[in-house]
C-alpha cells in the first residue's frame, strides 16, 4: 500500500508530486502568503529573541506556514500513504495555531505575567489531539477515487474547539479593554493585534468548515488570505510604533513577494519562450529589487541621522531656554536693586542731592529702567517659547486698550516730535482675548512705529471686518521702512533689520517675535507691509471679534 | 529553565512522538484502510 498512487496522478516532480491537479489559485495565493508571513515572523523573532511575545507571534505564524505547506502537499502529492500522513497531522497543526492565536490575544500587553498553571490548562487540548493523531478518531480511512482522507469524529470537535477559541479570544479582548487591563502604551497596538488575529482565525474556520461541509475544497483556498490581513496589521503596528528598520523590511518583503510570485509561474509555463521570459523578468526584478532595498536602506540611515540631530538640537534648545531664564532672572534682580537705589537717591533718602549730581542719578535711573524692560522682553520671549504663558480669554472693547497704550507711550512720541493720530471709530470693537497679553502686543507694535520714525507721523486705526468676523488694527508710519530682505526676519526670534540697530540701539529683536506668538495664540494674524527703505511701514493685527 | 518552558517542551515532545508514530504507521508500514477503490464507472 506504500506505493499506491491516486487515480490519474502522474508524479512528475521528484517522483512524488503532481502539480497538474492543483488549482492555480493554490500557488498564486498560498506560496506568496507562506513566504511573506514567514519572512515577517522571522524578522519579529530575530528582532528580539528574549521577548516572549515576539516568540508567540513567530510560532503562531510558523504554525500557519506549516499548515499551508501541509495543504500544498495534500493538493500535489501523488502517493496515497503520504497524503494520508499529512491529513493526519493537519489537526495537530490547526490546534497549535489556534492555541497560539488565543495565547497571543491573552498575553499581549498584559500587566501580569501569565501563570504556568494557566498554560497547562491551555495546552491540554493539544495533548488530546496529539494522542488522537495516529488513530481512526482523526482519519478513519482513505477514499481512493476522490484521493482524500475520510475524517473522523475528532474533526467535528475541532471545529467546535476553534469556534470556542475565537469567542474566548474576543471575550477576553473586550473585557480587557473595558477593565483597562492593558499596558497603556500598548493599547493601540493591542487593538490591531486582536483584530488581525480574530479576522484571520474566524475566516480560516468559516472557509474550512464550509469547504468540508459542501465538499467544495476551492472554498478552503480563501481561508489563508486572512493571514495577509494579520501580517498587514502586524506590519502597521511595527511601522507605527516600533523600529526604524521596518521600512527596509517593507522593501525587502515587496521584493521577496515579487520574486516568489514570478517564480511560481515556473509551475505552469510549458513553452521554452515562456521559460526565457519568466527568467528574464526574474533577473530584472532581482536587480531592481536590490537597488530599491539599497536606496531605502540609505534613506533610513539618513533619516535616523537627522532624527538624532533633531533630538540633540531639541535638548540644546531646552538647556538654552533654562540658561536664559537663569541669567535674566539674576540680572533682573541686580538691575532692580540698582534702579531702587537711584530712585531713593533722587528722592533724597540718602541726604540732599546737589544740582551737579542730580542729572547723573536721573541718567542712571533711566538706564536701569530701560535695562529692566529689555530683560523683561527676553524673559517674555523665553516664557512664550517654552509654553509657560497661559491666556485668560475674555471679551472686551479694544478701543480703551489702545487708548491706555497710547497714554503710556505718549511721552516717547512727544519726545521725538512724532505726531500720533487715532481713528478708533464710534462704536465698541469687542474682541475675545487676554487683555494683559494684548496690551503687550500693541505696546510693542506702536512703540516700534514711534521708534523707527525719526520724524513725521504715525496713524492708528481700528476697523471691523464683518465678513471675516475679525477686527483689524492698522498702524501706518512715515518712518525708515523695511527692505524685502529684512521683511523675512521681521517676526523671527532675535530678528533684526540690517540697519535697524542704527536707529534703535536698544532693540532686542524679541519684540515682534513676542507679538506674533501672542497673536497666533489668539488665532489672529499679524503682518507688515512696506514699499521699501525710507518709505514708511504699515503693521496690521487682525483679531477674532467677540 | 522556567516552568513555562518545561510545559511547552513537554507538549512539543508529545507532538513529535505522535507525529513520528503516525509517520511510521502510515508511510513506512502503510497501515491504513483504503475505501472506494472501484471507480464509479466500472462499478456499473
Total number of helices of chain A: 15
Order of helices and strands of chain B: HEH
Determine the N-to-C terminus distance of chain A: 92 Å
Radius of gyration of chain A: 39 Å
Q: Overall pLDDT of chain B, averaged? A: 82
Proportion of beta-strand residues of chain B: under 5%
How large is the radius of gyration of chain B?
Answer: 19 Å
Most extensive interface: pair and counts? Answer: A-B, 33 and 29 residues
Structure description:
Chain A contains 15 helices and nine strands. With 546 residues, chain A is an alpha+beta fold. The longest helix of chain A is centred in the middle third of the chain and has 75 residues. The mean pLDDT of chain A is 83. Chain B has two helices and one strand. The longest helix of chain B has 26 residues. Chain B starts with a helix and ends with a helix. Classes of the chains: A alpha+beta (546), B mainly alpha (44). Strand 1 of chain A pairs parallel with strand 1 of chain B.
Amino acid at each position: 500500500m506504500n506505493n499506491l498512487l491516486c487515480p490519474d496522478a502522474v508524479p512528475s516532480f521528484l517522483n512524488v508530486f503532481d502539480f497538474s491537479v492543483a488549482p492555480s489559485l493554490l500557488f498564486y495565493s498560498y506560496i506568496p502568503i507562506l513566504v511573506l508571513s514567514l519572512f515577517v515572523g522571522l524578522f519579529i523573532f530575530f528582532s528580539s529573541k528574549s521577548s516572549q511575545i515576539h516568540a508567540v507571534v513567530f510560532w503562531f505564524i510558523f504554525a500557519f506556514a506549516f499548515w499551508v505547506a501541509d495543504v500544498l502537499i495534500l493538493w500535489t502529492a501523488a502517493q496515497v500513504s503520504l497524503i494520508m500522513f499529512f491529513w493526519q497531522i493537519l489537526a495537530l497543526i490547526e490546534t497549535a495555531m489556534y492555541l497560539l492565536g488565543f495565547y497571543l490575544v491573552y498575553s499581549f500587553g498584559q500587566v501580569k505575567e501569565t501563570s504556568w498553571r494557566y498554560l497547562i490548562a491551555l495546552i491540554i487540548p493539544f495533548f488530546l489531539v496529539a494522542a488522537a493523531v495516529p488513530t481512526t478518531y482523526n482519519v478513519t480511512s482513505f477514499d481512493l477515487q476522490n484521493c482524500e482522507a475520510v475524517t473522523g469524529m475528532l474533526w467535528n470537535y475541532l471545529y467546535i474547539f476553534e469556534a470556542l477559541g475565537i469567542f474566548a479570544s474576543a471575550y477576553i479582548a473586550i473585557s480587557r479593554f473595558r477593565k483597562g487591563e492593558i499596558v497603556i502604551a500598548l493599547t493601540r497596538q493591542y487593538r490591531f493585534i486582536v483584530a488581525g488575529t480574530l479576522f484571520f482565525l474566524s475566516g480560516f474556520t468559516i472557509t474550512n468548515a464550509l469547504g468540508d461541509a459542501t465538499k467544495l475544497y476551492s472554498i478552503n483556498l480563501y481561508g489563508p488570505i486572512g493571514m495577509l490581513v494579520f501580517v498587514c496589521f502586524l506590519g502597521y503596528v511595527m511601522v507605527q510604533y516600533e523600529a526604524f528598520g521596518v521600512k527596509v523590511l517593507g522593501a525587502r518583503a515587496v521584493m521577496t513577494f515579487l520574486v516568489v510570485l514570478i517564480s511560481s509561474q515556473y509551475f505552469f509555463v510549458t513553452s521554452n519562450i515562456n521559460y526565457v521570459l519568466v527568467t528574464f523578468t526574474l533577473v530584472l526584478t532581482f536587480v531592481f529589487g536590490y537597488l530599491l532595498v539599497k536606496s531605502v536602506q540609505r534613506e533610513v540611515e539618513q533619516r535616523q541621522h537627522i532624527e538624532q540631530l533633531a533630538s540633540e538640537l531639541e535638548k540644546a534648545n531646552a538647556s538654552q531656554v533654562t540658561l536664559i531664564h537663569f541669567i535674566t532672572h539674576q540680572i533682573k534682580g541686580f538691575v532692580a536693586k540698582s534702579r531702587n537705589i537711584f530712585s531713593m537717591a533722587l528722592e533724597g533718602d540718602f541726604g540732599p542731592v546737589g544740582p551737579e549730581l542730580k542729572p547723573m542719578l536721573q541718567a542712571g535711573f533711566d538706564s536701569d529702567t530701560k535695562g529692566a524692560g529689555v530683560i523683561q522682553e527676553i524673559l517674555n520671549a523665553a516664557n512664550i517659547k517654552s509654553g509657560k504663558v497661559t491666556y485668560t480669554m475674555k471679551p472686551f472693547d479694544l478701543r480703551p486698550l489702545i487708548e491706555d497704550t497710547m497714554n503710556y507711550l505718549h511721552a516717547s512720541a512727544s519726545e521725538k516730535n512724532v505726531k500720533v493720530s487715532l481713528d478708533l471709530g464710534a462704536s465698541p470693537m469687542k474682541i475675545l482675548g487676554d487683555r494683559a497679553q494684548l496690551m503687550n502686543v500693541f505696546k510693542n507694535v506702536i512703540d516700534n512705529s514711534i521708534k523707527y520714525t525719526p520724524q513725521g507721523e504715525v496713524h492708528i486705526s481700528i476697523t471691523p471686518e464683518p465678513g471675516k468676523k475679525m477686527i483689524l488694527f492698522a498702524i501706518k508710519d512715515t518712518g525708515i521702512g523695511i527692505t524685502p530682505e529684512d521683511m523675512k526676519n521681521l517676526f523671527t526670534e532675535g530678528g533684526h533689520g540690517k540697519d535697524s540697530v542704527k536707529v534703535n540701539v536698544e532693540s532686542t529683536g524679541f519684540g515682534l517675535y513676542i507679538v506674533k506668538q501672542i497673536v497666533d495664540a489668539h488665532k489672529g494674524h499679524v503682518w507688515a507691509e512696506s514699499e521699501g527703505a525710507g518709505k514708511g511701514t504699515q503693521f496690521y493685527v487682525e483679531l477674532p471679534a467677540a | 529553565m522556567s516552568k513555562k518552558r518545561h510545559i511547552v517542551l513537554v507538549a512539543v515532545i508529545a507532538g513529535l512522538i505522535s507525529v513520528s508514530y503516525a509517520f511510521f504507521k502510515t508511510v513506512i508500514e502503510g497501515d491504513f484502510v483504503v475505501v472506494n477503490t472501484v471507480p464509479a464507472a466500472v462499478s456499473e
